[in-house]
Specification:
The protein has strands spanning 3-7, 10-15, 18-21, 56-60, 70-73. It is mainly β.
Amino acid sequence: MVAKSYLRGWEIIFVDGYWVYADNYKLINKERRCKRCGKMPTKEGYDACLGKIEGASSACCGHGIENPYTVMKKDG
């Protein structure tokens, strides 16, 4: 069984103890542009299309994967 996830819209898989991009098996050690909008994350690490959301511990625009705009509140 292979663990699978997404990073900025790109499918990633866990292989031999490392997360790699599923399309080219390159290690996740450099940011890729968002698969949907083509923008790089901000210098603070936020999704470029969302920016900083006050009161959120994390947020994702969805990058074209199923349900977009997930926001997690800091207080649960």
